[in-house]
Amino acid sequence: MNPLDVKRFSAAGFLAALFWTVLSGPVGAVVPGSSGAAPDGLSHPSLTAPADDTRPVMTVAWPDTLVNPYDAFTIHETIAALKERLRGYRIRTATFAAAESAEQLERLRPDFIFARSVFPLDAGVSSVRIATRRLKGLAEAERAVGAAFVVRSDSHYRTLRDLKDRTVFSSLPTAIDGWLAAERVFRREGIDPTRLFARVVRRNNDYPDVVGAILSGRADVAVVPACLLETLGDEGLADVSGLRVLESEESKSAPVIPCRYSTELYPDISLLALPHAPSEMVRDMTIAILSLRNTAGAEWLTNVSHAGVDALLKELRSAPGPI
């Protein structure tokens, strides 16, 4: 296929993201604000501003499931750009445990959240979607992320059913660009993954954990975000030449994104406003983020349909068996 003009992130950006991910520390750890354009790490919004800084505080948070190198880089660059456009606010940042969203958000009370498209629903969070990320070069913001079933090139696996009694590695079960998207494929093909696979192994990070498992042979198949393999290979971060993807028919014949994928595609990360955020602040944030036309290789759009996500969750919840 002819690749679209889209790049996930540069090697320099990847290293910067790794640095920021390490610097951010575990969820709940206070990190001193860094100089320049970097966002100040924060675990609790009650930290006071300097006495001479009377600007209203704007708190932006995201779940720990987004603390991977690419998303960390995107959020870091986006926060830095927003600070330039929102000089009337003191922007503070926080991460919270996705598994304890209700409790931690009640404590943190952020004004805005960066999150995957399923987050408001699976976390039971009341929010308003302001904007959705679209990577440069993609035609449809509604169809931007999905999952890839990755096997070793020298294996005989051609379909999911060939993987009977094998080991699969995946990230968290609620990942829209991972297991959640894969679950829909299993259901539509009449496959119960708890019966198909001998072992389902979860890891927090797709890279290096899940990718490392398939490269080392500990996994027979890995469920990873679409485009991850291409990014790792392009940037020389991993030798993926010995891997291949069990592609969907669309991916083979009429791909929507510039890489191989196995599932349907869904919207990317969104910025959500929480109910207690002041309306004037939400207005200012909306104007600011929609003005970012090429930050970290992406832009932010409004009115992006999430009907595909709604249909996915409805289909999985109405089907028998575990989701």
UniProtKB/TrEMBL annotation:
Domain of life: Bacteria
A Pfam short name: Phosphonate-bd
Protein name: Solute-binding protein family 3/N-terminal domain-containing protein
UniProt source species: Sutterella wadsworthensis 2_1_59BFAA
